Amino acid sequence: MTRGHRTRGDLALVALLALTLAAAATFLHAALAGGRLDGATREGRNLVARLGLTDLALFTEARYTRHPTQADRHAAFQDHPMALEHFPSGSMMAPPPFFGRTAHDPLAPATASPD
Amino acid sequence: MTPWLQRQRHLIDFTVEALARRKGRNLALLVVYALMVFVLASVLLFSQALRREAALLLAQAPEITVQRLVAGRMDLVPAAHLERLAGLRGVASAQGRLWGYYYDPATQANYTLMVPLTDPPPPGTMQVGPTLARFWRLGVGDVLSLRTHDGRAFPLSVQGILPTDSALVAADLVLIAEADFRAFFGIPAGLYTDLVLKVRNPREVAKVAQKVQRDLPDTRPIIREEILRTYAALFDWREGMVMVLLSGAVLAFMILAWDKASGLSAEERREIGVLKAIGWETSDILAMKLWEGLLVSVFAFLLGYLAAYVHVAAFSASLFVPVLKGWSVLYPDFALTPQVDPFQVFTLFFLTVFPYALATLVPVWRSAVADPDAVMRQ
Amino acid sequence: MIELMDVRKAFNQGRHNELWAVRGVSLQVPAQQVTVLRGPSGSGKTTLLTLVGCLARPTSGRVRLHGRDVSGMTERFLTGLRRQTFGFVFQQFNLVRGLTVEQNVMLPAYPLGLTRRDLRRRAHGLLESLDLAEHAQARVEWLSGGQAQRAAIARALVNDPDVILADEPTANLDTELSRRFLDIVRDLKAQGKTLLMTSHDPLICQAPEVDLVVGLRDGQLD
Fold first, then answer.
1. B300, C40, C100, C176: most buried, per Cβ within 10 A?
2. Sheet harboring C60-65: ordered strands across?
């Protein structure tokens, strides 16, 4: 077809193979990188332990979004996450599993650890 | 090589040449296609990485946090509760936490003021989160003046800056001494924001939480597992608004791809007639078209996926920062360790590759089974 | 070798625009000779050619090849027949645009699963003999009418068929090129090929290479 004996079809297949290998390499890279705790994460874990932190500082925009897991009934994330009043953070986070629990409710039934 | 393989090679040669003939159109399609995969894969990889990070970080969170509810609202917890819980069977230790929010009208930012459980800074000083420090360009020894609950200026000098690497949990923190905290917010001694419990046997956490609730009915215990579960649902891809927004784009692309893939031009139709007339079987033509669909969609998938991986792994998903940041003034800088969930990647693969590959086949099937003599009568 | 027995072919049967293109033709196409179907346009000669070449099935009647009835065969079988037994030279040549001459010539052999080297060798041999070797890498849309026809002939020959079918081969050629075509016909005949052409070109019908001229009018033999 074209000069030499390499066709465009061959080129396409070689490129495809290279991309597939690269994609496989991402699996490997992720497995290697994910297997060990890097310095930053260790630093963060120490701080969480020292301060007794409960949340990520992802949504610092308002008091009621800063600690989603500590929310009370008047706070954000109690509604359906599609609720637009807390856009965009409200669209990325579901209500905590204990939402709505009061003193008289039993503990969340979904709790997985054995009693 | 077997004749079957040789034949597939020839079919691929033919289909690649055919694609090369309409280079502009097919390249544009490939780019749009890859872009769509890129955005979808970026969301998947980013949320996966963020969930992993959250799980690792918050594994150190308090095993049980106890809030007190008064008239259905969170309220301060009296020291009596603390003593009561410390004596509960199975509880290794109980501590009162002091934390709260400070809204700075000048910067329109919210700070989280907190008293560390251990090693608090000396009175009159503070340790600040890395993002806050950068925002104010604070160095050790600098003084930041906040306004107390009763309107007084309350100068605090920087004793230390929390490590930059811890920004994801500490971006907006202001750590101060207990005396300063109580004076600043006007919280008398003997009251805490909430309590944190350490449990002797990790398997008894839920049981202890139940006991807490039974003994102190005005409290609400939150166990670590629930915290972890909340963050595990972060960006849950069925719930995420991102996905809702994206689905519009995906739909638009699907229409475009369907139109492109399922409509055969008169020339393509004629070509199929010629191929049949010169001895290609219907199955050869279908195989050729299937190769076309697979090559385009697999290429687009791989390009999009790899770009997404680089985006998340090397650039910490920088394109998503505006979305995540929202109205936050203090947004943490953080690097992510990518995590790949093979199941999700394969789901994405099937969802993006197969509809397109099949869409290329439908119209070909129709014209490939037509009588080849049509090519002689035109 | 090819026998048609009372063959009829209708288009759009049962609809208001029903058309009987061939109305009962019985004919023997002798092997290793040159036969011309002559007739005005609309006489059904192209349709007859498609019936002989197994591109279409007759509405009624039989087509026999080597004494074997092929009119009732499966599409898969007919495809194989088209590939191995027949070579087609279409009136519009029907070369695939965007591909080179060499690629076009190799097309009918793709489903055979030959190695690429064998394919190229075959194609080059043919292009050499048809004086097209220097254009092997040219795209077909750059070819002149005569070159395009020779490329089409090379494509028809690549699977080494017994029978060459050509539809109005000289319709797009001037006298000079038509004579050139007849030279090729003579060579093919000398190689033992059976040729069947449609034409109303007197140059073809009166050529010494042609063994048999069959007249057609309104779908019937003259």
1. B300
2. C19-29, C2-11, C60-65, C68-69
